[in-house]
């Protein structure tokens, strides 16, 4: 028989907690709008602009619900800005794609019962534009070690907010919770 003591489990956990501890958080991404021919000074200025946008976003996000609302507004504004940046030919293609999507949706709705339509409309109205991410530290460190350190700091509380540079943009982070529950398989599952 193999015997594993509580001390063995605790020791294993302490050595591998980055694989087990999870944090939950919401995020919004603010890209750095760089140009290929930008000078270093211009790149620094664009970086500061993206950071300022992320921090302004976080200032407005007084709780989880406003964070979600702000993400929805940001996504709608980003889509509009994308559309407005298209040339006339691309706008026509975009409009055609949207019309096809709407036509397909109407065809689908025509085959649904009243209850299914009501459920669909309710889901659409309550769409959550801000996913709650739940990740272990090793996965977060791949994006930003600084962000991982902040998220896993034991003093972190629900509603804490911060912006972090990662790659070509800033993540605006809204902390929700930390989960240190470890579920290890029993020996019966292994055998």
Report on the structure:
With 191 residues, this protein is α+β, with helices and mostly antiparallel strands. Helices cover 55% and strands 16% of the residues. It contains eight helices and four strands. It has helices at residues 6-16, 40-60, 64-84, 88-110, 114-125, 137-143, 145-151, 187-190; strands spanning 22-31, 133-136, 161-166, 169-179. A hairpin with a 2-residue loop joins strand 3 (161-166) and strand 4. The termini are close together.
Biggest sheet: strand arrangement: 2-1-4-3
Order of helices and strands: HEHHHHEHHEEH
Runs in which pLDDT lies below 50 for 5 or more consecutive residues are none
Strand content: 15-25%
Broad shape: extended
Structural class: alpha+beta
Number of helical stretches of at least 4 residues: 8
Number of DSSP-assigned strands: 4
What's the average pLDDT?
Answer: 84
What does the largest sheet look like? 4 strands, antiparallel
Helix content: 55-70%
Q: Termini distance? A: 12 Å
Q: What Rg do the Cα atoms give? A: 23 Å
